[in-house]
Amino acid sequence: MSQKPAIFLDRDNTLIHDDGHIYEIEKFAWINGAAAALKRFHEANIPVFIVTNQGGIGRGIFSEDQMHQFNNHIIAAANKAGGLITDIAFCPHHPLSPDPAMAIACGCRKPEPGLLFKLAQKWEIDLSASVMIGDRDSDVEAGRRAGAKSYLFIQNNLDDLAKQVMSTHFPIKIGKTHA
Ligand SMILES: [Mg+2]
Predict the structure, then answer these.
(1) Domain extents in the chain
(2) Cα 164 to Cα 55, 125, 151, 158, distances in angstroms
(3) How far does the centroid of ligand 1 lie from the alpha carbon of residue 176, in Å?
(4) Is-contact 141 110, C-beta < 8 A?
(5) Longest pairwise C-alpha distance within the chain
(6) Which residues are designated catalytic?
(7) Distance of CA 158 to the CA centre of its chain
(8) Distance CA 156, CA 4 (A)
(9) In angstroms, what is the span from residue 169 Cα to ligand 1's centroid?
(10) Residue 9 CA to ligand 1 centre (angstroms)
(11) SS3 for 30?
(12) Taking a C-beta distance cutoff of 8 angstroms, is the pair 72, 78 a contact?
């Protein structure tokens, strides 16, 4: 069994705009360069995963179903753009949830690394060869704790960072021209 590297992406304000607890499809909008970045990763044949804290579920702001519908819209939009999102892992918990079962100190809410571990196990991913990208320190920390290289997204365009990540960690392999 050979393990492969992957790209782990935060969802809100890394891939898509979020003014706070977004779940309505009509509000969907890519972050600058996000569609191009997804296409770039897919063309390089690197699996892409979303790891996202969705505490709005625990807080009762939207349902898990509504989140899935919204995520399916993102997946479809990614396909349309020439990208591929292989899987999405989410944390529904939130410390302020009125439901004690949802207010637990879980292992999946970033900066905890649980979402990355879950996907790595399911898809046979080598975390030490993988990259995590997100707009918050908690994203970077989750990636770090999972053993991945981690980048804080502070550029205005996600594809600018994607180019940097690709050239640093996934340089194009030139085939041998002779034996
Ligand atoms: Mg974010």
Answers:
(1) 7-169
(2) 31, 21, 10, 10
(3) 41
(4) yes
(5) 66
(6) 10, 12
(7) 12
(8) 29
(9) 22
(10) 9
(11) strand
(12) no
57/65 Cα distance (integer angstroms): 10
pLDDT tens per residue across span 87-120: 999 999 999 999 999 999 999 999 999 999 999 9
Report yes or no on whether pTM surpasses 0.70: yes
Which residue in the block uniquely carries the two structure tokens 């804290």?
Answer: 53
Q: Which two tokens stand for residue 23?
A: 């779940």
Q: Which amino acid is at 154?
A: I
- What separation in Å is there between the alpha carbon of 121 and the centre of ligand 1? 23
Task: Give CATH superfamily name and number for 7-169.
Answer: HAD superfamily/HAD-like (3.40.50.1000)
CA of 80 to the centre of ligand 1 (A): 23
Place of tokens 């100190």: 105
Q: Is the pLDDT of residue 81 over 60?
A: yes
CB-based contact 139:152 (threshold 8 Å): yes
Q: Are 148 and 113 in contact (CB under 8 A)?
A: no
- Residue at 164: amino acid letter: Q
